[in-house]
Amino acid sequence: MTARREIWDMSAETMSRDRLERLQLVRLRRCYRRVNRRVPFYRHRFSEHADCPKNIETLGDLHHLPFTTKEDILSHPTDHFLAISPERILRFHATSGTTGHPLVMAYSSRDIDLWADLVARVLASAGVRATDIIQNAYSYGLFSGGLGYHYGAEKLGVAVIPISSGNTRRQIQFLLNQKATVICATSSYLSVIAEVAEEAHIDCKDAPLRIAVIGGEPCSEGLRMQLEDRLSLRIADTFGLTEIIGPGVSMECSERNGLHINEDHFIAEVVDPETGRVLPEGETGELVLSSVTKDAMPLLRYRTGDLTFLDRTACECGRTTARMGRVIGRRDDMLVVRGVNVFPGQIEHVLAETSGVTTNFEVVPRARTLVVRVVSTEPIIDEKNRSQLESKLLGRMHSALGLRLDIELVPPATLKRNEGKASRIARDSEATSTC
Ligand SMILES: [Zn+2]
Predict the structure, then answer these.
(1) Mind listing the pLDDT tens digit for each residue in 47-81?
(2) Which of 409, 286, 306, 351 is nearest to 95 (CA)?
(3) How far is the CA of 258 from the centre of ligand 1 (A)?
(4) Of the N and C termini of the chain, which has fewer Cβ atoms inside 10 Å?
C-alpha cells in the first residue's frame, strides 16, 4: 500500500467504487442539464439527435449521447462552447496544433483552482514532496503544460523553477546549480537534455535529480527505461489534454500498472475508433472523456484520439479510480503498411534498445513501405558500420512490427531535436497515412 503522503486527496482518490459512481451520476446529470441550457453547440447538437435522453437517469445513458470531436471545436467559435458568461473567463489555453490548427479553450477561476488541485494529485502520485525543487521544463504560454504544472506544484507547496522549454545548456546548469530534484518535461525533451549533457561530458548522475514527470506525448517503455538509466532518475508517466483541462487527467502511481484517471471529474470510456461502439474493459480503443465538472467549457464524450484501454481492478496503491493503460499512440499517427498497423512508439521502443542510434527519428510513408530516418549517435559513420547498423535495425524492426521497413541512417544534425512534443511523421509530398 502506498504511503498516505503519496495520495493528495484521500477522500476523492480512495472512495468506494459505489460512491464514486453515484458522484459521477450526480455530476453528469448536472452537467447535461447545464450544457443543454447554456451551451449553444450542445443545445443544437442534442436537439438534432433523436437518441438523446431527456434526462440522465443512469451512467449508461452517457453512451447514447453523440460524440464531440476536435473538428466540432475547430468549426465553431469558442463562445458556442461556453457554459459561462464571457466576463467570467479568466484565461485561455490552446493545443499545440501538432496535428492541425490549435484548439482554443477557456478557463474560469473555478477551473483554474480545480486544475491546480488535480495537478497536485499527479505530482504527489509521482512521489514529489514539499521539500523537493521542481524544474518545470514544459513550455510556458498557450500550451497548458507550463502553467498547469506550475500552479499544481505551488498548490503542493513545492518550489518551482519556471525555466520553460529550450536553452538546454542553461537547463543543465540549473539542474546542477539549483539542485532541482524533480523535472517536468516531455520525454522528447528529456532525450535532448540527456544528449546535450553527454556531449558536454556532464554526468547527470552527479545531479540530485530523482524524478521526472513526463506527459504531453506517448513514451515507449524502451525509451523510458533508457532515459531512467541515462539520467539516473525515476520517470512517472502522466496524461492530460488541453481540451479536457490540461495535465491532471490521469497519472501513474508507484505501482506502475497504468494511469489512475481522476474519475470524480472525468468520466472515461474506450470506443472502437471506427464504429464508435463502447468497448468492454481491457480492450484497446480510443479514449473518450467527459469533463463533467468543468465550469467554462465542459465537453461531453470528447474523442481524444489516444489509444488505450481501461482497467478497474484494485490497485495496490489504495486508489480506487480506474486506470488507463499507457497510451500506445494517437489514432492520427497510426500508419497502415501492407495491412499492418504501425505506431511511431513501436519504432521508438526498438531504437531505445539499440546502441549506436538515438531515439530521434522521422517516418516517411512511401508506396507500400515506410522509410525510417534514424539519427545516429556518431557524426561520421563508415560504410561498413552503417550497413551493419542498418541491417541490425531492419531485423529488430521486423521482429517487433512484423514488417520489413526501409532504414536510412542520418548524421546528428539532420533532424531537428524536439524541445516540446515530437512530430514523427513527415507528411511530405508523397506521404499518405496508408501504404
Ligand atoms: Zn495505483
Answers:
(1) 999 889 989 999 999 999 999 999 999 999 999 99
(2) 306
(3) 8
(4) N
For 133, list phi and psi in degrees, rounded to 5. Answer: -125, 125
CA contacts within 13 A on the Cβ side of 6: 17
Q: What is the DSSP letter of 340?
A: E
pLDDT per residue as tens digits for the range 391-422: 999 999 998 888 888 999 988 878 877 777 77
Distance between Cα 95 and ligand 1 center (Å): 28
Domains delineated in the chain: 1-331 (3.40.50.12780), 334-410 (3.30.300.30)
Joined grid coordinates for residue 6: 503519496
Give the distance from CA 44 to its chain's centroid.
31
Closest CA to 257 of 328, 186, 313: 313
210 C-alpha vs ligand 1 centroid, how far in Å? 20
Would you call 256 helix, strand, or coil by DSSP?
coil
* Residue 259 CA to ligand 1 centre (angstroms): 8
CA distance 83 to 254: 37
| DSSP bridge pairs for 310 | 324
Nearest in space to 126 (alpha carbons), one of 254, 215, 318 = 254
User: Which helix (H) or strand (E) is 373 found in, with range?
Assistant: strand 369-376
Q: Write out the three cell numbers for 360.
A: 530521434
Tell me how long the chain is.
435
Task: Please give the Cα distance from 302 to 300 (Å, whole number).
Answer: 6
